[in-house]
Amino acid sequence: MIANTPSIRRSTHRVVVRWKDHAVQVGGGAPVVVQSMTNTDTADALNTALQIKALYLAGSEVVRITVNNDAAAQAVPYIREQLDKMKIPVPIVGDFHYNGHLLLQKYPDCAKALSKYRINPGNVGSSRSRDDNFAAMIAMAIEYDKPVRIGVNWGSLDQGLLARMMDDNGRRAEPWPAEQLMYEALIESALSSAHKAVELGLPADRIVLSCKVSQVQDLIAVYRELSKRSEFPLHLGLTEAGMGTKGIVASTAAMAVLLQEGIGDTIRVSLTPEPGGDRTKEVVVAQEILQSLGLRAFTPQVIACPGCGRTTSTVFQELADQIQTYLRDQMPIWKNTYAGVETLKVAVMGCVVNGPGESKHADIGISLPGTGEAPSAPVFLDGQRSVTLKGDNIAQEFQKIVQRYVEQ
Ligand code: SF4
C-alpha cells in the first residue's frame, strides 16, 4: 500500500508543562508542541512580557526566556505577573547556563514562576562542581514540582566527558570516526544526565531531552539514535540555523525528516532575526512545518500557483497574499468559534490551466483570468462552481465569500 502519512509517533513518557491550570503536554502521543524563545533582555521585564505575549498569540505554546543573572532572575516573577494580568497563560521556561543552581536557590520566586527549567549539562559548573550543581538544580525541580529539559549542545558539550570518551575511543581496536564520536558524546551527555536526574529523585516523566547541533545531517543522525535509546520526549531544533531562507530551509529539512519518522515531541525553529525583524516568524515557520506534514492544523491553507507567462498582472499574487493575511488575522477569533476552521483549504489560482482543477479540490477556490482569457473569475465552493466575480473588487468580494463560508 502506498501511504501518505508520517510514521507512527515514537512512544515516550508524557511530560506536562503547566502554569496553574493551563497544561501543555509534551510527548506520550500528544500533538507536537510549538515553542519559541525571546530575545529581549529578561531584566527588561515589561518588554519581555510583551514579546512573550506576541509569541503566544502567534501560536507559541511554550516560551523560553534567558535567566542569566540576578537582574533577570528577579524580573521573572514580575514577568509572570504581567502575563497573568494580560491573561496570557503560556508556560515560561528558564534557560540556565553556568549559574542556574545559584539563581534558582537564591530566588525562590523565580523558581516558582517558571514552568520548566532548561539545564545544559555541559556548562552547569566546572568539572569539580558539575555534579553538585546539577544535583542542586534537580533538587529545585523536585521541590517546586517542575519538569526540566536536559539540553545538550555541540557548542557547549561537557568537555570532561568528551575527553574521557576520546581516550576510550583511542583504546578501541577499531576507533569510531570523528562524527560518530561526536554523536555518541552528545547522546551520552543527555542520557547519563537524565539517568542521574532520575537517581536523584526526579520522576522520568518530568524530563525532556535535546541534543542540538547546527548541521542538518548531524541532527538527523543524533536524534535517530537518541530516539532508539530512550523514552524521554525529544525537543527538536537545529541550533544556529541561520538567517532568512537558509535558516528556514535547514530547519525544515532536518525536522521534516525526523518528524516524518515519528521522532520529536516539541519543536523550535531557531532563526536569527534580521535587524528589526519579527520574532514571531519562527513560530509561523514551526507551525507551517507541522501543518505541511499533516501533523497538526493551525490555520487555513492557501494554495496559490506560482504564476507564469500566462498571467501578466499581479492581481492573483496580491489576492493570495491578502487572503493568507486575512485568514491568519481572523484565526484568533475563528478558532474559538468555528470548529475545524484550521483545516480549511483555499485555492487562489492564476489561469484556466490549473485554476478550475485546483479550485475544485479545495474547499473554496478562485480561478483568476490569465492573459487573453475572459475577464471573469469563477469561484468554487466544495468542488462546485458557484458565482463568477468580475470587475475591480474581486479581492474584497472573494474575502466576503470566504467569511460567509466559514460562518456557515
Ligand atoms: Fe501559470 Fe496558470 Fe499554472 Fe498559474 S495556473 S502557474 S498562471 S499555468
From TrEMBL:
Q: Which reaction does it catalyse?
A: (2E)-4-hydroxy-3-methylbut-2-enyl diphosphate + oxidized [flavodoxin] + H2O + 2 H(+) = 2-C-methyl-D-erythritol 2,4-cyclic diphosphate + reduced [flavodoxin]
Q: Which domain of life is it from?
A: Bacteria
* Pathway the protein contributes to: Isoprenoid biosynthesis; isopentenyl diphosphate biosynthesis via DXP pathway; isopentenyl diphosphate from 1-deoxy-D-xylulose 5-phosphate: step 5/6
Looking up SUPFAM superfamilies in the UniProt record yields: Nitrite and sulphite reductase 4Fe-4S domain-like (SSF56014)
Q: Name the enzyme's class.
A: oxidoreductase
Question: What EC number(s) would the UniProt record show?
Answer: 1.17.7.3
One Pfam family hit? GcpE
Q: Which cofactor does it need?
A: [4Fe-4S] cluster
Keyword 4Fe-4S belongs to the record: yes
How the cofactor binds, per note?
Binds 1 [4Fe-4S] cluster.
Q: Which UniProt keywords apply?
A: 4Fe-4S, Iron, Iron-sulfur, Isoprene biosynthesis, Metal-binding, Oxidoreductase
Task: Supply the Gene3D superfamilies for this chain.
Answer: Dihydropteroate synthase-like, Sulfite Reductase Hemoprotein, domain 1
> Which part of the chain is the IspG C-terminal domain?
301-403
Q: Which residues form the IspG TIM-barrel domain?
A: 23-286
- Residues noted as binding [4Fe-4S] cluster in the record, renumbered to the chain: C305, C308, C351, E358
A GO molecular-function annotation: 4-hydroxy-3-methylbut-2-en-1-yl diphosphate synthase activity (ferredoxin)
What this chain does, per the record? Converts 2C-methyl-D-erythritol 2,4-cyclodiphosphate (ME-2,4cPP) into 1-hydroxy-2-methyl-2-(E)-butenyl 4-diphosphate.
The record's listing under NCBIfam families reads: ispG_gcpE, PRK00366.1
Would you identify the family this protein belongs to, as annotated? Belongs to the IspG family.
**Name of the protein in question:** 4-hydroxy-3-methylbut-2-en-1-yl diphosphate synthase (flavodoxin)
Gene designation = ispG
